[in-house]
Amino acid sequence: MIKVHGVCRIASDLELKHTTSNIPFVAFTVAVNKSYKDEGAYFHKVIAWRLLGENLVKYQKKGSQIYLEGSLTERTYETENGNRYITEIVADNIEYLSNKETDNNYPQTDEEIDETFKHGNPTNPPKILTKSQVREDKKQKVKEDADGFYETSKLLASEEDLPF
What we know:
- The chain has 164 residues and is an alpha+beta fold.
- The protein has 2 domains: 2-119, CATH 2.40.50.140; 131-158.
- It has 3 helices and 6 strands.
- It has a 5-stranded mixed beta barrel.
- The longest helix has 26 residues, at 131-156.
- Residues 120-126 and 149-156 have low confidence and may be disordered.
């Protein structure tokens, strides 16, 4: 069994369905960003059964960000053209990283989702630093830490207060 987990966005509308034996489930698609150098996203099919699926439909919507844990599975079904194979994730746990009511600034349409994954999140763009900026940032942090430590140590204790 292959376990998968990660942060993703719901990329399809959520609709609760029931099996012939009346077991609730929701089948949906999630989008996962490709690496920072690539544009676009990977799309994966997911199935959430029973209460997990019911709550997902109740509290989340297309475009919502979630943390997904599950198992990668493969199933087959017959068609007129022969057997078809589907690889999908069966959800074991879903944590909500955004809220259905407060998620208005996230993409809702297919075009908005495609643009978001193509260019990153426009409301919170990543900070990109050059190597020299990273080195300078590290030097500054060391200097600040060292200055803060010495100032604090002078205030908190003197050599006479040390037990050795």
